[in-house]
Amino acid sequence: MRSLSAILPFIFIGAVAGGLCLEALCSSGAAASGFGPSPGQEAARYMDRLGAKLSSAGEHAAALECFNESLEQNSSYADAWVHRAGSEKALKNYNASRASLQKAVEADRRNAAAWSALADALSMEGDYENASAAAAELVRIDAKNKACWLKKGNIEQMRGNFSAAEADYNRAIDIDPKYKDALYRKALCALHDNDTDQALELLDLVLTLDPKYKQASTAKGLALQAQGEYEGAVKSFDKALETDARWTPALAGKMNALLALGRDREAADILIRL
Questions:
Q1: What is the 3-state secondary structure (H, E, C) of the chain?
Q2: Which domains does the chain have, with CATH numbers?
Q3: Which partner for 190 in 3, 60, 173, 199 could form a disulfide, CB atoms 3.0-4.6 Å apart?
């Protein structure tokens, strides 16, 4: 079987996968009159779409060839850089993926998907300072998107900047007062500040919205434990374990609460499971 690189030239000159071909593009009235995308831009879009389909099918090496060809046709096509970065990440080529995302934001400073992916890539590398800067660009572009504020808040939280994180979560909650992920993360900020009352209030709201939110049940158990409410803490940890019986944070929290209650045998049984 010929490699994709061997057949790429024929994709441009034949009616392939939907009938798009350069000959038709070049002869179109829009291209000939100077209006609309150029043939090179259309070819870049087509190869990007083809690459995206291959990527969705898990054919990342083949997808990468398509994205490369797309960028040969139009090196300033930010979406192709973003998609190329995704395939590079899937192939565990993380440095190349980050470099592609840098190219994407250079090509289009207002490409929210590029800034979002770049923030994630930098966070994975532990470069939270630059990840925060990328997230700041993201919310500047898409300030009405609650998920963007959540992402920025999470990065600030990883930096240890809990006051900034809480401000970001508040922005997300302003957009959607029932945004459970932002409410949960804000509760973690309250726990960090030893404000267990506020944390419990937020966590109860999260659990009203989603009773199976195991992270919130676990955090509630920790908040109750901090208040000396060990029986209540055990119940909260059990609630988390109803959703996921092997959820290690809840098992560890329950073990500590049982030890505080003097229920050493039950605690020892949990230790065996950890």
A1: CCCHHHHHHHHHHCCECCCECHHHHHHCHHHHHCCCCCHHHHHHHHHHHHHHHHHHCCCHHHHHHHHHHHHHHCCCCHHHHHHHHHHHHHCCCHHHHHHHHHHHHHHCCCCHHHHHHHHHHHHHCCCHHHHHHHHHHHHHHCCCCHHHHHHHHHHHHHHCCHHHHHHHHHHHHHHCCCCHHHHHHHHHHHHHCCCHHHHHHHHHHHHHHCCCCHHHHHHHHHHHHHCCCHHHHHHHHHHHHHHCCCCHHHHHHHHHHHHHCCCHHHHHHHHHHC
A2: 1-107 (1.25.40.10), 109-177 (1.25.40.10), 180-274 (1.25.40.10)
A3: 199
